[in-house]
Protein 1
Amino acid sequence: MSTAAVASGPLTRNTVSARSLAQPVVFGEVPRTPQLAFFLFILVNSTVFLRPAEIVPELLGLPIYEGLIFSCLFLSINIVRNELLPQMLYHNPTTICVLGIWLACALSHATHGSVVDLKDAVILFFKTALYYLLFVACVDTPTRFKLFLLNTACCAAVMVGLCVVDYFEWIDFTFVTHVTDRDGEDETGAVALVLRMRGTGIFEDPNDISMLIVAAIILCCYFATDKMFSVLRGLWLLPMGVLLTGLFCTRSRGGLMSLGAAFLTYILLRFGRGWSVLAGALGLIALPVIAGRQGEIDIEDGTGQERIQMWAEGLDAIKSPDIVFGIGQGLYQELAGLVAHNSYVHAYVELGFFGGTFFFGCIYFSALGLFRVTDPKLELRHPELHRFAPYLAAILAGWSVGLFSLSRCYVVPTYMVIGMASSFIALAGPRLQPACWLIAWDKAHVQKLVVASAGLLAFLYVFVKVFARFG
């Protein structure tokens, strides 16, 4: 396996600014950020799922999220600054990719001379990039990492639980509304309708909340197998049941595909290829019976074909000079009438190959780092990080598959998952035997990223060419 250079001596990230760029940077057991900053970041993360103004209308209009995130930044500004030092960026290429997306948002409009759109795009993604930077700065020890996971699992389960209660009309919450979608035709030829559960805030799309549900289910499985909870581990079955019910209520095909990818990845890493193949075969057999509408995945007709046509329209738009920097962040809907419903297509079209490669790079480096953590030649000496590795790989796989059916290139939840992987890789490297940097922004890695990105874009072009049915 090719890894970055093995560090000599103890690994620590403390006092990075005082170190020569030729010296290894490592991670200490002592938190670099103040405890209050970490607490504020946990509150920031909580408001992503549970918005106080939606639950308490009297708080409407108060900049609660902004107040929390900038307070957190104020307390951890030196650590965030350290994350942007050249040596830190060299060993965390995911951060370079996040900053590259921010630059690509600006360039996508600058190349078209649109100053107003440029300003809006820069401000929009700044909030997301700031969340990611605070994540990698504040979640800097295994204990904090686990507390963050616990917070995410609980907040997601509570939010989904409220939506399920409202969906079944047990309690009517004014801040939760659901959507009725067409679902093919009934026996008489009339359009059939289906009620789909939506979430709150940025999870109002049924497909959005379904991706969150999948990630939360994996987290609940992780905590349900945690010996620290002793006899109370069985209590995690309750939120898991709520989350699975919520996933069914979304009627999301993308969510079901995401769940399948997540669990197959976990089984592959935990039990091996044979069990993964068996589980996949059994899942395909049971899918039509268990999933109903969600199991009916058809790319020749219906919404599946409509989405492929939208991908084709977008990709056609960058067969021009826009192939480099795109048509402009946020302009896909003006081009095709709707967003792409595919984050990879969306990023390549709006940000060009330049920005699309950075977006893909966030997934690429996250997956590469996790793959190397599981290398048999390396031993991860932290038991809890070792135990969590296949669960995190499952979350990343599920989210990455879900991005094929949603345009979520710029929103916080996507970078929450990317931040999980980035923080985990940073924590795992120095605890490996031998200790090493797992990924780096060097010539070899960048070349592989560019080739893989070009391959993905070519695949998307061929896919829509073959399967899009116009007229």
Protein 2
Amino acid sequence: MTPPSEDFWILDPAQIACLASAPRQTIVDRLAADGPLSVDELARVIGMKQTAVYHHIHKLESVGLVHPSDRRLMPGARKPQILYATPAPRMRLARALGIERLQRGTKRCAGAMLRQAERDFAEGFDHGAVHDGEERNHGFFRLIARPDAAALAEINEHLHAIGEILWRSNSSSGAPIALSWTLAPLSDESDPRTSKGKTP
């Protein structure tokens, strides 16, 4: 069982609004996985200008999603740089989905996440370290299905297990990967299997 201190549940509307930004989500994800890191390190690892990283760090710090954790003297620097970290290694939004007043914000967060997923996928082609088979680290998947309650429970159990594997296996010897997924109920007002069309 995961100790509660490892999970930070994001339920504050201001925090959710702050995360409706792909760069901020990326900064939070990188700090949760690899932190604490300096602004220089973040800028290098996510390919963003230092001034832009400072801007996003300031926004994230103002709502309590990141905080200064230490200082480190970087090679070639004259003074130590501030290192930033997340409040917990598991920054989680899932509970916000069940709160009606937070739905607008979570929709915007999902949109930002999917925009970032598109960039992550494109970067995978450029990175040159794509693997297939059992060590596959690049791919995508989408389908529409009609799972019953038991199948949906099984799907959610597997999705939860995948998240646990990723959190548990976050080691300094592994190469970073990004995994994004969405699950959404679709309208069923016009079931094509029961429509009464006429054959010409």
